[in-house]
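Can anyone check this?
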Amino acid sequence: MSTKPAIAKLYHESLPCAAYVIGLREKNTKSWKTFTVQSDKLKDAFPYNFFKSKYEYHIKPLEAINSHHYTFLDDVSQENINRMKLDGLIPAMVIETSPNKFQLWLRFEKTMSYEQALATSRYLTRKYEADKGAISTSHFSRCPYFKRILKNGTVFEAKLVENSRIINHNLEDEVIQPQKEESYKETLRRSYSKAPNIKSPLSSDIDAKCKTYISNLVNKGYEDMSMVDFITIAWLYRDGYSQGSIISAMMNNSHNLIKRKGNFHNAQRYLNYTFANVEKKVVCEKSMSPQ
């Protein structure tokens, strides 16, 4: 049985970072919460008995927005992992989260900007046929050794398949094309310039802002909650919030989100897909700013 120091050591060696974000989901419920823990305190973030924990544990390295070294891929097949290795990319960690489905982290040598990290995530996701809903610079992975309940009702323990300290060479800019990502971003910022300005003591609080944006749209008569989600994400994106903070705020505030999408993970994937569409598409100001 794995111990708390052992799992902390695993992350210290394979995904070293000054701090980590832990996500907790209570089993058989929709309850979800996150907290940040410093690297030297990581072992204290886990329960003494993994197998009797009432929570499913998720984790990610906490990286500054323009200081990225890690890329996460979800729902990768063993065949594509093997293909990745033949291409010279060695995962820092591979976790089997359901039968023959894997999550993995790649560690890169040079610091990547937000645009480079997102472009790298998108390029590798497409190349190795991973889940497009996990294209991100701040996605959680499941923590090994904790059990989860699959859609068919069976219980599956997330397994550590392999880990390493190997650091990969960064992909060339010409391959991942970060310049194109920046172009989308700047165009969207101009298109979303008419989002309402919220002036209140809580204006710096993304949850308060998210809740107010959603309320404004609903009060304007928007009944399609998918459109409300899209516009709210666009406005928060315009305000300069990171993908991770936007997804977290939407999980907390979007009306009946988990009920609409069936479960927590479907909701998270849906929000990541929506965020990706916000980055890719230029939407006319009229549809983004109802009169």
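Reply from J.R.: I decoded it. The chain has a mean pLDDT of 80.
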